[in-house]
Amino acid sequence: EDKVVQSPLSLVVHEGDTVTLNCSYEVTNFRSLLWYKQEKKAPTFLFMLTSSGIEKKSGRLSSILDKKELFSILNITATQTGDSAIYLCAYTSGGYQKVTFGIGTKLQVIP
Amino acid sequence: DAGITQSPRHKVTETGTPVTLRCHQTENHRYMYWYRQDPGHGLRLIHYSYGVKDTDKGEVSDGYSVSRSKTEDFLLTLESATSSQTSVYFCAISDRFRWGASYNSPLHFGNGTRLTVT
């Protein structure tokens, strides 16, 4: 059975810290891995990863996929209180773009 | 928000009553999804659709049915609502993924429907 596991489930850091969020997966017919950020409402897109070893960056956020070891990490450097959110990892599989999410990591950044 | 409207935004209903949630899109996207979100469980896929009249189950489909009779509408029905179906329901849409392309977002989410079953 396909699955995705995120760790840690929750994390509290101080402003300025660097955090690494983990997403490991076991998926038949894997196509891509997605990262989303969710604050109060609907999730907002961060990254889509399809190729191993290619880092994607957006400001202080970056992510990379390892298709051999079946995991992805999301890094946030110089954290700010506005980074406080739930970070969701998702995978797509098969030919019909079924998108399945993990439980998420709740990040709290304190001043 | 990417031309997705969920209705109603809030609903309170009693156990045993039928409930239908509607997702309407103006983007002409092929794929549509229904998720529920609960504390400690993240976003869980209920059903999704890959075309008109083409649907498939997600991981928590028991107690739910869906219909998609036209591209723009995807309906989620709880035939007989139970308290365990109290949740926030999100609809999402997607066009065909262009693998390796850059995206604003592969999935566009609606604003959610908060359903309470008493």
Ordered list of secondary-structure elements with their pairings:
The complex is a heterodimer of chains A (111) and B (118).
Chain A: E1 3-7, E2 10-14, E3 19-26, E4 30-38, E5 44-49, E6 56-58, E7 61-66, E8 71-76, E9 85-93, E10 98-101, E11 105-110
Parallel strand pairs in A: 2-11
Antiparallel strand pairs in A: 1-3, 3-8, 4-5, 4-9, 6-7, 7-8, 9-10, 9-11
Chain B: E1 4-7, E2 10-13, E3 19-25, E4 31-38, E5 42-51, E6 54-57, E7 64-70, E8 73-78, E9 87-94, E10 108-109, E11 113-117
Parallel strand pairs in B: 2-11
Antiparallel strand pairs in B: 1-3, 3-8, 4-5, 4-9, 5-6, 7-8, 9-10, 9-11
* Assembly annotation: heterodimer
Proportion of beta-strand residues of chain B: over 45%
What are the low-pLDDT stretches of chain B, counting only 5+ consecutive residues below 50?
A: none
Largest interface: A-B, 25 and 31 residues
How many beta-strand elements of chain B?
11
- Note the total helix count of chain B: 0
Strand content of chain A: over 45%
Query: What share of the residues of chain B lie within helices?
Result: under 10%
The gross shape of chain A turns out to be globular
Structural class of chain B: mainly beta
Give the helix proportion of chain A (percent range). under 10%
Distance between the termini of chain A: 41 Å
